């Protein structure tokens, strides 16, 4: 990013003018992002809804199997409104969403909303914990590598991050389960307990494995923006002024380098969600990913549709937040 | 060579060395795996689905990687799976690469605002879904199996390539050489295929290489979740799935070896991808 050099001293009116411009730019960006997120959300719903059209033949017949009588199939089709036109079906799905109604399971009569609200918290907790671990690991690693200018450490960093990107999470999870769950007995191999501090006992290992896909990407992006920051003159100023270590690391190095990392983190929520599905299956956690796999196995289409749509909307929401935060953290672009 | 070019020669040498080590290591690792996958199932005394010995026999001289729960030789099964796993991944990358590049390029150079915003919205919508989740959901609707995996991955991934290609095509379309070709009166088709697509695809191909790692893992992960290859066929994810419950009680060999093969394949591609990225970055900065 090229810094523009101000030769003129900022006068009173200049400052207020640039502040106004800044606020206007912020509002414009904000509104633009909101509009975009809403339109993407709409398409997410359309796509999730259209999925059922992909099934070869009658989805109800496929779900119920060949033993089901014709009457049962017809009545279920009617119940789910599958004989209406596509537009009608989508309209009722779309309006139902705003009433908190996502339809109900083909089999056990539970509503999709109920399934989502009972199981989503576990998944979100797991994702939050994974991201937390990733931050705790990535920041010191990136800082260390950026500050040490040795070639060998840089090389090691690049090699190890590209290797760890290529390791399959589900295999690591099994190895982790064997080492920490069975051998050291530090983590329970299965089971879950709902309350907050107690559930950490069950969540720490899956979260740790899950963050394995995030740490290399996160530390790389942070590392490269740290390297850019280190070239800035204010860092040198900080060193010369003898700023205290912690303040130096935070305000002079990390804070100016965070914007790309925050944006990346919000985009990585989608990858984390994919990872939690696998972790929930392996560690038998009652999250929404495991519900998805169960529903896929049973061909419980309304549940699959609902869960996929919720995940899509979560991703849209987080990329909105991330874009905005990245913008707030680094407004140099519009200021100049 | 004259004195003045000496400096640039040494820098050139340095960057060649930088990327090349990764590329060579990666290709050697991948080559070894492919050779093993081609040779070992043919020369082995066991068939991949033959009952070779006692069930769950630990690794020995007869069965280098031991036997699985049915008594099949894990060694030959691990290498029998090479072409299934990597083949599915190759298709899962190439189809979306081609489709996404073409669609994205056409979108980038098209002047119709309506088409642009409609297809653009669909692309954004597809990209909003978490990759693995959307693939799993698609497989739920089109049914499990190796072909379904490839189809599902392609249906999801083309949109990622299309997004990259569209952004790039808008830039390429305004370049001087494209303008020049237009002025010379070349046909639209020729400009598209000879001038625009090659320059757009350099970007999408670079992404394809790193995507290949993700797809290799995704194919195995989907089989691990029980959505992939049908049982008698050896496949890494499926083998890990079969050995999973035994793994935690100390019978490690039916799980560890396919897992290591998968890691090996992933790391090989990661090295190649990393090498090429280093190389292009060096070229770009110099």
Your description of this structure?
The complex is a heterodimer of chains A (336) and B (286). Helix content of chain A is 76%, strand content 0%. Chain A contains 14 helices and no strands. Chain A has helices at 12-50, 59-64, 70-79, 86-98, 112-147, 151-165, 169-183, 196-210, 215-230, 233-241, 245-282, 288-298, 301-329, 332-335. Mean pLDDT of chain A is 82; it is low at 1-7. Chain B is mainly α and 286 residues long. Chain B starts with 5 loop residues before the first helix and ends with a helix. Mean pLDDT of chain B is 84; it is low at 1-10. At the A-B interface, α1, α6, α7, α11 and α12 of A face α4, α5, α8, α9 and α10 of B.
How would you describe this structure in keywords?
heterodimer, A: 336 residues, mainly alpha, globular, disordered N terminus, B: 286 residues, elongated
The gist of it:
The complex is a heterodimer of chains A (336) and B (286). By secondary structure, chain A is mostly helical.
Arithmetic mean of pLDDT of chain B: 84
The largest pleated sheet of chain B is described as: none
Largest interface: A-B, 59 and 47 residues
Portion in helices of chain B: over 70%
Helix content of chain A: over 70%
Helix-strand pattern of chain A: HHHHHHHHHHHHHH
Layout of strands and helices, then pairs:
The complex is a heterodimer of chains A (336) and B (286).
Chain A: H1 12-50, H2 59-64, H3 70-79, H4 86-98, H5 112-147, H6 151-165, H7 169-183, H8 196-210, H9 215-230, H10 233-241, H11 245-282, H12 288-298, H13 301-329, H14 332-335
Chain B: H1 6-43, H2 74-80, H3 82-109, H4 113-128, H5 131-142, H6 146-173, H7 176-183, H8 188-224, H9 236-247, H10 253-285
Helix pairs in contact in B: 1-2, 1-10, 2-10, 3-6, 3-8, 4-6, 5-6, 6-8, 7-8, 8-9, 8-10, 9-10
């Amino acid at each position: 990013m090229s810094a523009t050099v101000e030769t003129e001293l900022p006068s009173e009116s200049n400052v207020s003018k640039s502040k106004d411009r800044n606020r206007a730019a912020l509002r414009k960006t904000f509104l633009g992002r909101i509009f975009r997120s809403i339109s993407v959300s709409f398409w997410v719903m359309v796509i999730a809804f259209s999925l059922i059209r992909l099934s070869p033949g009658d989805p109800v017949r496929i779900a119920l199997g060949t033993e089901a009588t014709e009457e049962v199939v017809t009545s279920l089709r009617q119940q789910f409104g599958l004989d209406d036109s596509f537009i009608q079906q989508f309209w009722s799905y779309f309006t139902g969403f705003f009433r908190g109604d996502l339809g109900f399971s083909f089999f056990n009569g539970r509503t999709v909303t109920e399934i989502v609200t009972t199981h989503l918290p576990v998944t979100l907790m797991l994702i939050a914990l994974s991201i937390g671990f990733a931050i705790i690991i990535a920041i010191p690693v990136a800082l260390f590598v950026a500050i040490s200018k040795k070639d060998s450490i840089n090389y090691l960093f690049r090699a190890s991050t590209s290797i760890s990107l290529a390791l399959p999470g589900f295999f690591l999870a099994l190895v982790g389960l064997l080492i920490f769950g069975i051998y050291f007995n530090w983590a329970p191999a299965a089971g879950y307990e709902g309350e907050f501090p107690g559930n950490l006992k069950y969540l720490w290992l899956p979260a740790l494995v899950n963050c394995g896909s995030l740490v290399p990407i996160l530390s790389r992006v942070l590392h490269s923006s740290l390297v850019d920051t280190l070239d800035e003159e204010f860092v040198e100023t900080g060193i010369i002024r003898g700023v205290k270590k912690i303040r130096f690391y935070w305000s002079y190095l990390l804070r100016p380098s965070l914007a790309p990392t925050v944006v990346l983190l919000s985009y990585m929520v989608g990858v984390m969600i994919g990872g939690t599905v696998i972790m929930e299956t392996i560690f038998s956690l009652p999250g929404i990913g495991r519900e998805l796999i169960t529903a896929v196995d049973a061909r419980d289409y309304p549940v699959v549709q609902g869960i996929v749509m919720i995940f899509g909307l979560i991703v849209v929401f987080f990329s909105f937040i991330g874009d905005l935060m990245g913008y707030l953290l680094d407004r140099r672009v519009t200021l100049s | 060579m004259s004195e003045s070019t000496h400096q640039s020669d040494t820098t050139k040498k340095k960057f060649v060395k930088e990327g090349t080590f990764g590329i060579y290591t990666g290709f050697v690792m991948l080559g070894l795996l492919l050779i093993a996958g081609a040779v070992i199932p043919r020369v082995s005394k066991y068939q991949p689905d033959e009952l070779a010995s006692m069930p769950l026999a630990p690794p020995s001289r007869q069965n280098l990687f031991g036997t699985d729960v049915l008594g099949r030789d894990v060694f030959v099964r691990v290498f029998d799976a090479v072409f299934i796993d990597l083949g599915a991944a190759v298709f899962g990358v190439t189809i979306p690469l081609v489709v996404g590049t073409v669609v994205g390029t056409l979108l980038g150079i098209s002047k119709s605002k309506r088409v642009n915003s409609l297809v653009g919205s669909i692309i954004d919508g597809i990209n909003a879904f978490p990759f693995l989740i959307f693939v799993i959901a698609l497989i739920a609707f089109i049914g499990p199996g190796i072909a379904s995996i490839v189809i599902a991955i392609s249906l999801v991934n083309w949109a990622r390539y299309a997004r990259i290609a569209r952004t790039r095509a808008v830039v390429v379309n305004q370049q001087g050489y494209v303008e020049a070709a237009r002025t010379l009166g070349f046909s639209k088709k020729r400009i598209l295929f000879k001038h625009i697509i090659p320059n757009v695809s350099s970007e999408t191909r670079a992404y394809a290489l790193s995507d290949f790692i993700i797809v290799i893992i995704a194919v195995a992960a989907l089989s691990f979740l029980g959505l992939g290859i049908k049982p008698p066929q050896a496949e890494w994810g499926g083998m890990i799935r079969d050995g999973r419950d035994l793994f935690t009680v100390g019978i490690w060999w039916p799980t560890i070896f396919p897992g290591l093969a998968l890691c090996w394949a992933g790391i090989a591609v990661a090295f190649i991808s990393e090498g090429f990225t280093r190389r292009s970055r060096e070229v770009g900065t110099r």
